Amino acid sequence: MIDKDFMQDLEEEEEQQIAEAKQQVEDEPTCSLLKDNKFLQHYQRVLEVSAYQIQDETINASHEEYHLILRSNEYSTIIDQEILNIHKQLKDVYHKKFPELEKIIINPIEYVKIVRLIRNAIDLQAIDFSQLLSGQQVVAVNIAAKQSLIGQLSEEDISLVDQLCHKIETLDSYNQKIICYIESRMKYIAPNVSALIGTQLASKLMAAAGGIEKLANMPAGNIQVMGSVKKNMLGMSRAMHNRNTGYFGTLEIVQKASGKLQNQIVRMLATNVAKAARVDNMKTCPKGNVGEDLRIKMMKRYQKIQEPPPAKLEKPLPIPDENKKRRRGGKRFRKQKERLAMTEVRKYANRLKFGLEAEDEIKDTGIGLGMLSQGIGKVKLHIKKDKPIGLSKKLQQRLAQTKTQSGGGTGGLTSSIAFTPTQGIELVNPEAGYLSKVPDQYFNRESGFRTVLKKEREFGRQH
């Protein structure tokens, strides 16, 4: 365990060294790290520390080796950038001899190995590339050599090519040893994150975040875009440009995925890395079992996403039943059936006479009139005479009321003059028969309410 003040001074010294190394790479792009004493001392320290095994199961931020790992990861990034710079200078020099080689071999390390084999040779058929290249690449190199192989280089160019190749090989050997050291220690710092995405990518994420604690406190959306570089497309289309891959774009599973699935797999990786980082920060699973489980579940889900959708099956018609199905009955169903029944006009429109010409369509709709257009057949109007005309109860009451008011005891032909055998012509009251039939009740449908006020007034006058 070390003191907090010493840790703070150590972090400030690390940041200063990394900033100076980056500035040297920008100012002198040709192998500036090989001349940097601080980098060489750091490299010797890495070799010394990697020689012995760690006794503790975990490495915390309080350990001195924890900061050594972070600094090693920063130097690994700087070495990659410097290899690219030297590779660019090497392509410019060797372009004079074999301009098409840089298009076929893109990897800087493979390019250096092929240049070492060819050097200043003219006939490439005698050189065996099978140990370094695939069969397709060997054929492509031989065909390109016949078409674009220019003459030989001068002695000065050859010596410069050898120097640049030697620098790239030296830097690559340094980088490989530093990466091996980081990978050997990442299982103690972040075992679950290493089990999920690998030790190399785990070290890059941890270095970019500033430690496992800061990585654990970081949301998955920020982890997803870590390491992404915003490119200036200068007005070009961004349709085929994969964004937000960041450090996860170096994984093989992301590179092999299609454009639509790349964003999904990167989101899944970022989410699971956030979970695994919190487990590593709490030190609850030092063996990395949680990371292995997260990886297995993620791969199962990714395989399910890749599966094509199920094809639509043509369902066959059901087997017809021999028994007659029960039909719904009732007054409402019979009325609905009568309303939706096929009319005689529709029946004749659906029929055709055998042996006649095809019927004409109605305005190219594909619908004809059948036997109606041919003038064959007679449409009959069927009316059911036995079916009574349905009247509502309210209407029936109105009819009965009008019948009693207009008719009943007195008809329209009755008169007040009657002929009798004794007196001859006699005046009679036509409503006398109707009033005699009225029952002697206070409440009646025909007479209404009977009042007794007249009788009381007459009785009062008499007395």
Report on the architecture of this protein.
This protein is mainly α and 463 residues long. The chain has a domain at 210-228 and 246-307: Orthogonal Bundle (Serum Albumin, Chain A, Domain 1). It is 54% helix and 2% strand. The chain contains 19 helices and two strands. Strands 1-2 form a two-stranded antiparallel sheet. Strand 1 and strand 2 (424-427) form a beta hairpin. Helix 8 packs across helix 9 (199-209). The N and C termini lie far apart (137 Å). Mean pLDDT is 77; it is low at 25-29 and 232-237.
Give structural attributes.
elongated; mRNA processing; RNA-binding; two-stranded antiparallel sheet; Serum Albumin, Chain A, Domain 1; mainly alpha
Identify the strand order in the major beta sheet. 1-2
Give me the CATH fold name of one domain. Answer: Serum Albumin, Chain A, Domain 1
Order of helices and strands: HHHHHHHHHHHHHHHHHEEHH
Shape: elongated
Q: Please name the fourth-level CATH homologous superfamily of one domain.
A: Nop domain
Could you tell me the number of beta strands? Answer: 2
Oligomeric nature of the chains: single chain
Query: What integer value in Å does the Rg equal?
Result: 52 Å
- Quick one: biggest sheet? 2 strands, antiparallel
Second CATH tier, the architecture of one domain: Orthogonal Bundle
> Could you give the distance between the termini?
137 Å
SSE-based structural type:
mainly alpha
Helix content class:
40-55%
Low-confidence stretches: 25-29, 232-237
Strand content: under 5%
Q: Helix count, per DSSP?
A: 19
What number is the mean pLDDT? Answer: 77
In CATH, what is the class of one domain?
Mainly Alpha
